[in-house]
Amino acid sequence: MSLPVQDGDELKAALDHLVETVRRGVPGCDGASLTLLQQGAPRTLAASNDLVRALDDAQYQRSSGPCLTAMDEAREIVVVDFHDEPRWYEMAAEASRAGVRSSLSLPLVDGAGVIGGLNLYAQLRAAFTEESRAAAESFARQAEVLLGYLQQLRNERAARAREHDVSSALQHALLPVLPRLPGVDCAARYHVGSRDAQVGGDWYDVFALPDGAIGLAIGDVMGHDIAAAAAMGQLRSVLRSYAYEGSSPSVVLDRLDRLVQDFEMAQLATAIYGRLLLDPEGATLAFTNAGHLPPLVRTPDGAVSALERAPSPLIGAVPPGAAHRGERVVALPPGSELLLYTDGLVETRERDLDDGMAVLTRSFAATDRGASTDAVCDALLAEMAAGGQDDVAMLLVRIGP
């Protein structure tokens, strides 16, 4: 059984320390081990030496032995002498050959029943006296606490994994299928972080507007749970509705902000909304940024630059009407590429935001300009998101010639 990475080292050390303390602290004991029942199957979590682990395994393989009987019958089992033990003949013979003469097995229980066993072995005949058994019983209670904590960790981890799967499925279902629009080539990716990490509220969108412009959006709802994924879907739908009315990017985000706060749809969110208008000279992008990372543009000569913005509050950060978000308008010549992304692409446990932005800029500049937009997205994900804990949303738009 594997333990959660964040808890495994400390808990494994505690289990190892316990069996070693049992070996030293129980009179007559030469070796000890701790068995966990996992879905009815026994497994040794800790053993004071390899011989003890081998004796446990011999019982598991045969489905017969004193430690299994102690767990099956929920009672203490004492073997006085394996040389003269008729109950588990094969296991007794193996113990005798290994120089083990006696054993003491104690069941470990919690509120639901038997969860494992504490197993003690000795080289001497009749090694476990009343004093030994009393000491072992005290250690068994400590082992029950540790195994109970381990079971709690496993249950919590399983619950997080189930929620992660549900949130991820919900998020994928809510993300759009990219439309095929004349004059642009679009690709997008949504990359789930590690399974131990919780799913967030990252999203993107591309859609045609009635006046011929193209709406582009990306955002990140704060939080890491099903509620964040659901709020992401709500924000995307509301933004698209406001954008479809033909409002400017700043108006769209201001109205979105008011609705989010009035209906408590999310605590905080970042977002970019832009209107891309194609023309014979390429395209013109008008966009508003509400606390999101700046888009990157790669021009036909291969240069990459960030479309910085004046400070602008996140969605939900200030009272409605007090944000005063501005707009920026940039000209994009034919062949330009616009990259929108969430922070999981650039920020990891090993790399801060500034370093990540610098790496992304270099990586974007280095990708093959002749490659498809899908290939560029895949290359950036491979370069930037490997080993990342957070989710990533990414949208790449290439302006046609």
Automatic annotation (TrEMBL):
This is protein-serine/threonine phosphatase. Keywords: ATP-binding, Hydrolase, Kinase, Magnesium, Manganese, Metal-binding, Nucleotide-binding, Phosphoprotein, Protein phosphatase, Transferase. Gene3D superfamilies: 3.30.450.40, PPM-type phosphatase domain. It catalyses: O-phospho-L-seryl-[protein] + H2O = L-seryl-[protein] + phosphate. SMART domains: GAF, PP2C_SIG. It comes from the Bacteria. It comes from uncultured Quadrisphaera sp. Residues 10-157 form the GAF domain.
